[in-house]
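Q: Hi! First time doing this. I have a protein sequence and I read that you can turn it into a structure. Is that right? Here it is:
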Amino acid sequence: MTNMPPRFPITAEQIDTVMRKFYTKVRLDPVLGPIFNGHIGDWPEHEAKIAGFWRSAILMEGSYNGNPVRAHIQAG
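A: Yes, that's right. Below is the predicted 3D structure, encoded as structure tokens:
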């Protein structure tokens, strides 16, 4: 999308790893797990979409296509 350098020294693979580890912990959490599981049906799809958001925000790669504010408002 742009030739600007990344905002932080991190790779796309590292972002994906952080997302997988984060959501693994969220799913197992006794408080957060039921909330997230109630809204997310396809975990791999969700993780890929959110990782795309962070890769776009941090690496400016333009891989995210969505509206995160609307998605969270609709989720309640």
